[in-house]
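Question: does this match?
>
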Amino acid sequence: MNILTVTPNPSLDRTYEVPDLARGEVLRATGERIDPGGKGVNVSRAVAAAGHHTVAVMPLGGAPGALVAELLAGQGIGVAPVPVAGPTRSNIAVAEPDGTLTKINAPGPQLGAAESELLLDTVTEHSGRADWIACCGSLPRGLTPQWYADLVARAHAAGAKVALDTSGPSLIAALRERPDVVKPNAEELAQAVGRPLATIGDAVKAAEEVRELGAGSVLASLGADGQLLVGASGTYFASAPVALVRSNVGAGDASLAGFLAAGGEGPGALAAAVAHGAAAVQLPGSVMPTPADLDPSAVTVTDVVPLDRPLTEPAS
């Protein structure tokens, strides 16, 4: 399996573990990590941790960008950098023992027209060798919502399948180019259809509408409630128990990596997605799970979807 990832707004992520987050106080961290960040970057990290080949395409600038590339190379990940004038953003996350996570995300650099086009060209250059292209995250300043739609069109022209994990106007614009898989969470799914979601049945209906707008399949994360897969082969629901949530940073990205590495369709791929996501939330910071961290036997997959079950966290 060869998975190409695209991260238009990568980051250098610092995660601090603290006993308690007290505003206005001097805090002493009990743990610290520095990781390359961004949703597509995390997908590449999870794919590499599972033993598959991956190349990460992203704009990189300044000392933070150089460190992102160095850290990824150290994890055996191919990097296809696009040089940009502005420095790559640095983000901070503060994790508490009960799983509460406080994040500060910087805006990142503004990309010019030439940098935007070079990023698209670099994706096109690597598309022909990819089984899947995972396009993930928000767009940086300077890129219009149409940018992901252009990327999907170019990838399909090169014969590659596309998984898209974004939201808002960027998602709606890209649906016109018919991405093979989209991966919203409950909040993003509610935003896409313009109404709140209170039950799993509401989420299924919303996913069906997103398919009508152009998505081949919808892999929807419902947080602690599990995940849905709505596609041409049917509708499936999967969940797995989690003993302790340590950090949810990158858990959705690990889930998408598991789904794509398992073929990107059907209940077996959904089971792999849930296994990867459940493992990721039990690891510190944005550490990606290895096969040793997974517990496939704990995952339950069914085509009998509990439509009336209320969502633990209703989405609006």
